[in-house]
């Protein structure tokens, strides 16, 4: 089971405690997935979902909040590589017009025009419930072991802009882009994804996400430290090879007498301990030298070697 499926499953099992929040969540679920079908004078609300738990949630909310009779059925249909979707249907009558308007499915004139119904979103709890419904309908989140990515795919630019505004009111920074014929709200920052999961009430998914993120952070820190130490070791080895070559160049040309007395002890230590760092060599000297003092003497040895190599 994918991480996105786990998150949607958890949110589908989370029922709003307040009626106002239930209406807000139901509105988001229907606005993004519903069509109104008129067959022989009978107006039917038809909402299509990929997840059975989400369809059951819509079915329950329709009955509990508005006492609308509804049915749930599975339909074989190819959609996003799946062959089965779940259809929630409810037959409507003239008295249900106000319900459709309250949920943002029709405009003032009764024309089917799904929009975010801001009157349902006066409280923060209702805004969180609406966002939860939006994610249940069209949301996706990648597994935290990979790249961080959360998105909500929408087919209406007005609804996409309204959801972006809603997320901003909940202090969630998202971006909006186009993908083929769709509008995509997306988040790529781990901290913001954590805030999103907390906002919509996905507590278990939040803990799972954070646990993986902590492990990834520790692993990345260890890798950075290893890379840093490896790079330093490589620099130490390269410098040691160069310094030993310079010392041998001087000794081969003039013998040990060619090295000034103040530098001779350092040169001997470098040949004896080729793998040691400048700091370690300084600690071996009597009296001890600082790293910068050792580096200064090494530069003098290299200058002497360079003078030997210059043509007369």
Notes on the structure:
The protein has helices at residues 3-12, 19-31, 52-66, 97-102, 124-138, 157-169, 190-200, 203-254, 261-272, 278-284, 291-309, and strands spanning 34-39, 42-49, 71-79, 82-91, 139-141, 150-154, 175-179, 182-187. The protein is an alpha+beta fold. The chain folds into two domains: 3-201, Endonuclease I-creI (Roll); 231-309, no CATH class. Strand 5 and strand 6 form a beta hairpin. The longest helix has 52 residues, at 203-254. The protein is rod-shaped and about 110 Å long. The termini are far apart. The mean pLDDT is 88.
CATH architecture designation of the largest domain: Roll
Q: Please name the CATH topology of the largest domain.
A: Endonuclease I-creI
Q: End-to-end distance, in Å?
A: 77 Å
In the CATH hierarchy, what is the class of the largest domain? Alpha Beta
Write a brief structural summary.
The protein is of the alpha+beta class and 312 residues long.
Structural topology:
Blueprint: H1 3-12, H2 19-31, E1 34-39, E2 42-49, H3 52-66, E3 71-79, E4 82-91, H4 97-102, H5 124-138, E5 139-141, E6 150-154, H6 157-169, E7 175-179, E8 182-187, H7 190-200, H8 203-254, H9 261-272, H10 278-284, H11 291-309
Antiparallel strand pairs: 1-2, 2-4, 3-4, 5-6, 6-8, 7-8
Helix pairs in contact: 2-3, 2-5, 7-8, 8-11, 10-11
């Amino acid at each position: 089971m994918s991480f996105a499926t786990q998150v949607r499953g958890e949110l589908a099992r989370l029922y709003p405690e307040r009626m106002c929040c239930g209406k807000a969540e139901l509105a988001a679920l229907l606005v993004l997935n519903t069509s109104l079908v008129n067959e022989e004078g009978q107006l039917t609300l038809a909402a299509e979902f990929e997840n059975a738990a989400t369809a059951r949630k819509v079915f329950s909310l329709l009955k509990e909040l508005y006492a609308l009779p509804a049915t749930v059925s599975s339909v074989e249909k190819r959609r996003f590589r799946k062959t089965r979707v779940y259809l929630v249907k409810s037959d409507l009558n003239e008295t249900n017009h106000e319900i459709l308007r309250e949920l943002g499915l029709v405009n003032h004139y009764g024309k089917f025009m799904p929009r975010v119904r801001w009157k349902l979103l006066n409280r923060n709890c209702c805004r969180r419930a609406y966002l939860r419904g939006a994610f249940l309908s069209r949301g996706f989140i990648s597994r935290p072991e990979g790249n961080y990515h959360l998105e909500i795919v929408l087919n209406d630019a007005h609804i996409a802009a309204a959801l972006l505004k809603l997320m901003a009111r909940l202090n969630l920074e998202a971006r909006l882009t186009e993908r083929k014929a769709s509008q995509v709200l997306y988040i790529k920052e781990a901290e913001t994804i954590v805030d999103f999961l907390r906002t919509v009430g996905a507590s278990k998914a939040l803990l799972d996400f954070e646990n993986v993120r902590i492990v990834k952070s520790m692993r990345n820190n260890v890798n950075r430290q290893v890379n840093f130490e490896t790079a330093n070791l490589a620099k130490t080895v390269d410098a040691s090879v160069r310094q030993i070559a310079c010392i041998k160049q001087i000794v081969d040309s003039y013998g040990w007498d060619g090295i000034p007395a103040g530098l001779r002890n350092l040169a001997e230590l470098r040949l004896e301990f080729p793998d040691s760092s400048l700091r370690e060599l300084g600690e071996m000297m009597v009296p001890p030298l600082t790293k910068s003092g050792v580096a200064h003497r090494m530069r003098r040895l290299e200058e002497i070697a360079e003078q030997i190599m210059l043509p007369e």
